[in-house]
Specification:
alpha/beta, Aspartate Aminotransferase, domain 2, 4-stranded antiparallel β-sheet, 13 strands
Length: 354
């Protein structure tokens, strides 16, 4: 037996490229183009350097309570993790242990199959419809399964399922946990949080990385019933009690407090998204009607790979995957008006575009 025979080998998740050149227009990883709430900046300047020698609160009490107040639930129904990826990772370990296959869309967040493979969880993918929408009937009629997870709005398509469709899926599978990954919900979709009191198998996951402009601090959370949250907490404390650092806790609380600023940047991003949709249509692009902070677009004549390389040569990064079904699509994050204007002008200059 060789040494490597005892080592786990996985195909890892590949994140969007992070260029070091600050002059790049970076619209490839769905980050918010605006800074966090002003109170976050003020708090950063007053953080105690001396306190960094101390462990953080393992219960993340201040941030958990702030989120509970924001969403009108008790604090023991909120679980906080190091970004929604951490929350989802713990959720996979916690909830998907029946040995039955879990379900998620075939075109979706590409971390799901990575976690399933890593933890030996069997899975099946449910193909999206030709218009990129969620095949609700296929999820509902899948028979006995070990769990379900899907983003809403979906990534990378940006399409949102209606609340009634989400409820159908949750209701059809009372025997397993259904996770709705709402990383982009604030940009135009309806949250499934209104269903958590009605269904004991529902978990809703959100993040500070997109709409709250704090991707660099890594804050995510889940909201559900007390029982399911307690199971998450038990697994978390079996891995690492001190997952959330002290600055992230304090700055996260401050971000939740400023609802007015939060709503103002959502409004700006949505307005820029709609403006960009119109400009892309005029250039021959088509795309599903995004409810997220990105657009999933393909051109009627020019291959996505060629557009991707051309934009990159001009210092503009978008996201491209050479994968089945989506290898002629680009995911374009919504930046500032100035960034998106430059993006459109650069596209207009591309040979063959007009």
């Amino acid at each position: 037996m060789k040494l490597e025979d005892n080592i786990r080998k996985v195909i890892p998740y590949v994140a969007g490229e992070q260029p070091k050149d600050k002059n790049i227009i970076k619209i490839n990883t769905n980050e918010c183009p605006y800074p966090p709430a002003p109170g976050v900046q003020r708090l950063i300047e007053g953080l105690s350097y001396a306190d960094l020698r101390l462990y953080p609160d393992p219960n993340v009490s201040a941030l958990t309570e702030a989120l509970a107040k924001r969403y009108g639930v008790d604090s023991d129904r909120v679980f906080v993790g190091v970004g929604s990826d951490d929350v989802l990772n713990v959720a996979f370990v916690t909830y998907f242990n029946s040995g039955k296959p879990i379900l998620f869309p075939d075109v979706t967040y590409s971390f799901y199959d990575v976690w399933a493979d890593l933890y030996g969880i069997p899975y099946k993918t449910v193909p999206l419809k030709d218009d990129w929408s969620l095949d609700v009937d296929a999820f509902c009629n899948a028979g006995e399964v070990g769990g379900i997870i899907f983003p809403n709005p979906n990534a990378p398509t940006g399409l949102a399922a209606g609340l009634s469709d989400i409820e159908k899926i949750v209701k059809a599978h009372p025997e397993c946990v259904v996770i709705v990954d709402e990383a982009y919900v604030d940009f135009g979709a309806e949250s499934a949080l209104s269903l958590i009191d009605k269904y004991e198998n529902l978990v809703v996951v959100q993040t500070f990385s997109k709409s709250r402009a704090m991707a660099g601090l890594r804050v995510g959370y889940a909201i559900s019933n007390r029982k399911l949250i307690k199971y998450l907490e038990d697994v978390k404390f079996s891995i690492n009690s001190y997952t959330m650092n002290r600055p992230s806790i304090e700055l996260g609380v401050e971000a939740v407090r400023d609802e007015e600023y939060f709503r103002s940047i959502l409004k700006r991003i949505i307005a820029t998204r709609e403006k960009t949709k119109n400009a892309l249509r005029e250039l021959g692009f088509s795309f599903p009607d995004s409810s997220a902070n990105f657009i999933f677009a393909s051109h009627d004549r020019i291959p996505a790979s060629g557009i991707f390389e051309y934009l990159k040569s001009k210092g503009i990064y978008v996201r491209y995957w050479n994968k089945p079904r989506i290898n002629n699509c680009l995911r374009i994050t919504i930046g500032t008006d100035e960034q998106m204007d430059k993006f459109i002008e650069t596209l207009k200059e591309m040979p063959g575009m007009q």
